[in-house]
Design a protein that fits this description.
Layout: H1 2-9, H2 13-29, H3 34-63, E1 65-67, E2 73-76
Antiparallel strand pairs: 1-2
């Protein structure tokens, strides 16, 4: 499972979302043996956490958009800037 976690860490949001959708389709089919279902569920949870982390990072970046005096966006500040 560690190798899968490393593979997930390198995925873009879109790749992880597609992989998560694939896991859900397989689980919903009902044609997967119990042991494989458990492994798929664990992978799905790891993919969900990865997607959520990417969304949280994007939201943080959006919230750091710098606004000028007229309220219009004038640039951005990296989300890790203090």
């Amino acid at each position: 499972m560690e190798g899968q976690a490393q593979a997930i860490d390198g995925m873009s949001f879109e790749e992880a979302l597609r992989a998560l959708e694939d896991v859900v389709r397989k689980l919903e089919s009902g044609d997967v043996p119990l042991e494989e279902s458990i492994a798929l569920y664990e992978r799905g949870e790891a993919l969900r956490r990865h997607c959520q982390a990417r969304l949280d990072a994007a939201q943080a970046r959006i919230e750091k958009i710098v606004q000028g005096p007229d309220g219009r966006a004038t640039g951005t500040v990296p989300f890790d800037a203090g």
